[in-house]
């Protein structure tokens, strides 16, 4: 049977974070490309609407300034043209400005989903063209009089209007071009009124200025599109973060429900499993010891021994799973008392001595006998020592040596160190070994089978005591497990208290 790898398990749980991010990026790119294909200007539809909305806001806000400018220009042109002509031009200019403003207000009031962006854009282009054409009619003023200052005045007004038009219509480039075309044509017609060098130079400068305003308009359009793209990316990121938060909340809720279901399952199954196991262990031990007489077949005794050993293994596995579950759920209660760490370690070594002798292994102890007592849970401390020693015996080859050290830490705490001469653990497999049911590759090949819960339980119990857990290992150089307890748990001996002196009795003469 092929071995199940971590990658296969991960794929079974769903896509990785990198894969999910790549899929989101591809989906976003496809959506953006689809919107660009359906757009008339090569941008996303949301950008089309935003650019038109910005234009409409500019036009709506420029109504009063433009009307004021038209009135001032008409009043100034009355110095050269008849008042009736100036008034008619002013009325036409105000009417064109009002029409564009009304169209802009109507656009802003409509629902974006029900708008036809193509029609709206065409209205904007036609409106700009018509309004600029009205402004271009100012060239009629120099036709009334042959005055150089009148031509200069009209040229200055056309340049100002070109600057205002290109800036207001910057977010709709075609509208900016349409608005600038009549103004440039009107400026060029001034050459027909005079062929003087000064006039040619002024007209050339005016046309160049208008083209420069068009360049600034294109630059402003590019900046606006860039700002919209940045805002869209930011909104997309916020949306992804909100979705990720929602997914995280849902995953946490499911994890809490699963953890609760696991706790209920373990609480129920622990009783359901232990009750028949106790019967199996009891009856198999009776048959193994032949309490009611020898077996008719020698194989029955061997079978009963296997049943008893298998039952003990299953009971130990159940106990380890329950212990780890209580530790992970934070329900493992510590019954703390003053203990001698050296005594607990020595007792654990004595309990494991029979297993070590069976493999011809030797213990080498370096224990400081002057260590004071430690405030800890005796059952948890004994389980820590037994798990670490059991691992060392399992992974040490026959004839190997196990070194046990107990002493002071540099910070004033106490530590236990167990080092074996087993196959060791590659550095990249240490996280696997520290996970529940995890086992290293070399350990699987060379050691006895186990549940893979020993070290996670040890680390959980050490964390409950506020201590530290360290695993040092190199392939073919052995493994060292170091468990430290903080100085706050060391019970320093207090100095003896001096009894107060009894007060001296004084005799008084009668």
Automatic annotation (TrEMBL):
Keywords from the UniProt entry: Coiled coil, Kinase, Membrane, Phosphoprotein, Plasmid, Transferase, Transmembrane, Transmembrane helix
Transmembrane recorded as keyword: yes
Catalysed reaction equations from the record: ATP + protein L-histidine = ADP + protein N-phospho-L-histidine
Domain Histidine kinase: 268-489
InterPro entries to which the protein is assigned, alphabetical: HATPase_C_sf, HATPase_dom, His_kinase_dom, HisK_dim/P_dom, HisK_dim/P_sf, Sig_transdc_His_kin-like_C
SUPFAM superfamilies membership: ATPase domain of HSP90 chaperone/DNA topoisomerase II/histidine kinase, Homodimeric domain of signal transducing histidine kinase
Example GO molecular function: histidine phosphotransfer kinase activity
Coiled-coil segments on the chain, per record: 234-261
Protein EC: 2.7.13.3
Transmembrane segments: 62-80, 86-103, 150-169, 174-193, 199-216
One cellular component term from this protein's GO annotations in UniProt: plasma membrane
Top EC class for this record: transferase
Keyword Acyltransferase found: no
Region (Disordered): 1-21
Name under which the protein is recorded: histidine kinase
Source organism per UniProt: Methylobacterium aquaticum
Designated gene of the protein: baeS
